[in-house]
Amino acid sequence: MTPPKIAIIIGSTRATRFADKPANWFFDFATKERPDLSFELVDLRDFNLPLFNEAASNAWMPSASPEAQAWQKKIAEFDGYIFVTAEYNHSLTGSLKNALDQAYVEWGKKPMGAVGYGGVGAARAIEHLRAIAVELQMVPVRNAVHIGGGDFFAVSPLGQNGEMASIEGHIAGSAKALLEDIAWWAKATKAARG
């Protein structure tokens, strides 16, 4: 079996987003830690998705939007997903929710996990993300990376704007556990999908 292919999806499109810093750190960490998996950074900015305005989910009929079709084609390439998300008003970003809504068929029967950042490490956003993933027939994994509190302010422009290496010792254990979950489920679901 070829190594499962995992998308690390950058879930914010704001011009001033912080997401690139943890996404790039996690990509590098995952690539070194798990040579049995293949990783790709997928940036929502690259897809220019309109707000969902289809007649129905692509579970029921093909999407009309060329941007949605391009997004669906891209995410269909992967065997699992790790979303990098902020927490906005106790939930995930609007751009990430819209991206999730723009597909259905492509997400199914694949694992998902999350790297969250913010005051409470995006804990509430990740819980909402897991609930949405269940409806999309993904397999949410238990472990996640939560970059919160002092760690968030140590690396964020809102605080000291330090390098991710300065907090790696605090979050590496969670990152390894997340990758272990994703690897197990990606291999199992890929084998089951044939």
TrEMBL record:
Signal peptide coordinates: none
One Pfam family recorded for the sequence: FMN_red
Highest taxon in the source lineage: Bacteria
GO cellular component, one term: cytosol
Species, as recorded: Paenirhodobacter huangdaonensis
Single Gene Ontology MF annotation: FMN binding
PANTHER family membership: CHROMATE REDUCTASE, NAD(P)H-DEPENDENT FMN REDUCTASE LOT6
Stretches assigned to the NADPH-dependent FMN reductase-like domain: 4-148
Lineage start: Bacteria, Pseudomonadati, Pseudomonadota, Alphaproteobacteria, Rhodobacterales
InterPro entries per UniProt: Flavoprotein-like_sf, FMN_Rdtase-like_dom, NAD(P)H-dep_reductase
Entry protein name: NADPH-dependent oxidoreductase
